[in-house]
Design a protein that fits this description.
With 295 residues, the chain is of the alpha/beta class. Helix content is 43%, strand content 16%. The chain has 3 domains: 2-110, 3-Layer(aba) Sandwich (Rossmann fold); 145-236, no CATH class; 251-289.
Length: 295
């Protein structure tokens, strides 16, 4: 990383620069804030608040995208509180171990990466769910809740929207993972658990699973019809008659989509032939997906 050290104690600045340089960082030094704002862009600013008569706000404004860590000899409103309120990230009390300074730098560097990644994920999810038109009153929804939808994206949209509305972290778990049950048991109640693939559980495991989530903020998704559960079941039906561009559906979702949308366009014998299944299998699929063909 490129680091600027603003410190009027030259020996101290040189010592910090040498130690950070040994760790692979590129360091530059200056003794005043006026000289600092003439410099290039940096990843990290180490700003000493011991420089008398200096205004630190121009530094914070100029390098707002950088990680600014205050180096202070004592804690006061002027040395810590005001600069932090203006946008500095943290402070470290002199004298300090270089390892502690590096820990703070790494912490905020990781934080900035995660923040940018979170923004990108939110933009992607907003774009991905933009074609869905369902609206929910999330204040009236109590968890745990089961979501039944032939298209996974509808359940995804509900879960992430609910987590956003409730301002809670969300954990994603698939029941196709052999460790899913133990993972669910270990997670606390201060986060939303978004659990998919309920349809993959054996009948004997479903009872155990329902007991496991009874006191948790769980949203459970299934692409099959959900029966015999004590919790509320929300069925979300697709309003689209075409696939979303770029989507690749699982085989079960594809078969269900074709049966729903083409059973009146083709006779059963032709429809089953196009799907590569027997008429008996087609009948079983209708029963499984609770599809009624009106005559």
């Amino acid at each position: 990383m490129k680091i600027l050290i603003i410190e009027n104690e030259v020996y101290l600045a040189q010592s910090i620069a040498t130690k950070l340089g040994d760790l692979g960082h590129t360091c530059e030094m200056c003794t005043s804030t006026k000289d600092a704002i003439k410099s290039n862009s940096y990843d990290v600013i180490l700003l000493s608040t011991n420089i008398n008569g200096q205004d630190f706000n121009p530094i914070i404004e100029t390098f707002r995208s950088a990680i600014i860590i205050l180096m202070v000899s004592y804690i006061s409103n002027d040395t810590v509180s005001k600069p932090l309120s203006a946008g500095a990230k943290d402070y470290i009390l002199k004298p300090f171990m270089i390892e502690e300074l590096v820990r703070k730098i790494n912490h905020y560097q990781d934080y900035e990466k995660l923040k940018k990644r979170d923004i990108a994920y939110k933009k992607y999810l907003t774009h991905s769910f933009s074609t869905l038109t369902h609206e929910y009153d999330h204040d009236s929804i109590e968890l745990p809740i089961f979501i039944s939808s032939s298209f996974q994206k509808h359940s995804d949209a509900f879960a992430f929207e609910h987590a956003y509305e409730k301002d809670l972290p969300i954990y994603f778990i698939t029941l196709s993972d052999p460790k899913a049950m133990s993972e669910i048991e270990s997670l606390n109640q201060d986060a939303i658990l978004y659990i998919i693939d309920y349809q993959t559980l054996k009948k004997s495991d479903k009872k155990i699973f329902c007991s496991l989530i009874a006191n948790k903020k769980a949203i459970v998704s299934s692409t099959d019809k959900i029966e015999n559960v004590e919790h509320k079941v929300l069925e979300i039906k697709s309003e689209n008659n075409i696939f979303d561009q770029g989507d690749i559906l699982p085989i079960e979702d594809y078969v269900k989509y074709i049966v729903l949308n083409y059973q009146y366009k083709f006779p059963d014998i032709e429809l089953s032939k196009k799907l590569g299944i027997s008429r008996k299998s087609l009948w079983e699929k209708r029963k499984k997906y609770d599809i009624i063909k009106k005559k």
